[in-house]
């Protein structure tokens, strides 16, 4: 269930009109209406208020998932991909694109390639384009591919900030080792990332808003390789 569907369901279950919900949050009815049709997205303060009102976690409120495919990164749910590899992946991401790491020799015409190596582990991020882009991140252990993630995204508005995106991606964690955190805000920029599945098989998307305007979106999917 998407955020807008979740919001409508929770609001109606509590017997609230859009006007009453807006009054509780201290905003206009039009703002609530835009949330419920997916035209805009609440900031972190409003998400916290919605979480408190409906007695659900922010994670459940913003994530688009069925209960049986909820994201949990736990040692006993990671098959042959161990915690050491996920730790390495996070360090690699923070050291390459997010950390403004140097690009290597293009592996394809006009591609951007970034590589990070520790011992027998190797990470390569290779992408094409700029404002509209697609690419793949992959991991090798002893030169054997073990995991990959494909992504495609685009800039939607001139108010997009590449620096903010890098700031978000530098916050990648072992609990959410894909792009950025579930929710993050700095000033007028807001970011959220929605995941379905687990590290071995997942799909997701991320968005960046400047105030109430969506300025960036990216879709990704991936999993373990055998």
Automatic annotation (TrEMBL):
Domain HTH cro/C1-type: 7-61
Gene3D superfamilies: lambda repressor-like DNA-binding domains
UniProt GO MF annotations: DNA binding
CDD domains (alphabetical): HTH_XRE
InterPro entries membership: Cro/C1-type_HTH, DUF5680, Lambda_DNA-bd_dom_sf
PROSITE patterns: HTH_CROC1
Record protein name field: XRE family transcriptional regulator
Biological classification of the source: Bacteria, Bacillati, Bacillota, Clostridia, Eubacteriales
